[in-house]
Specification:
The protein is mainly beta. It is built from 1 helix and 7 strands.
Amino acid sequence: MIIIKTRTKEDHFDLDGIESSEIFQISQGEGVSFQDEVEYHLRIQKTTKELIVMGSVKTVVSYECARCLKAFKEEIKVDNLLYSYALDQLGEQLDLTPLVREEFLLRLPIMPVCSEECRGLCPQCGKNLNDGPCGCHEKEKSSPFDVLDDFPIE
């Protein structure tokens, strides 16, 4: 857990470290998994009335492409973290883990794709179209609305 001791006499200090991604308690599924460690670099500054936390955190996330189902990894880096806490409302320690977890979750894509050029899978045979054409011929799809093309408009 990323914990800061709030009752310190120092005006400011740096907190650097590496934690297991298991601290976030994120279920592995839906094509997303946090497999790498979480690296953080924080600067804590204390004023007369508040505690200010600034810094950055990063980790590597494994995804499954929503188009071609290929596994790929991507680094998620949260720069410019900035939190402010009133000193009179804090206890002895402050756990930043839930806030960092939320920052990472907000940066996860809804539909992760391995690249913008990903062509996905053939809807007929299931071949990965990034590896080349599959040989299936696109059949003209008939639609029940095709009869409207012949509808006379006056």
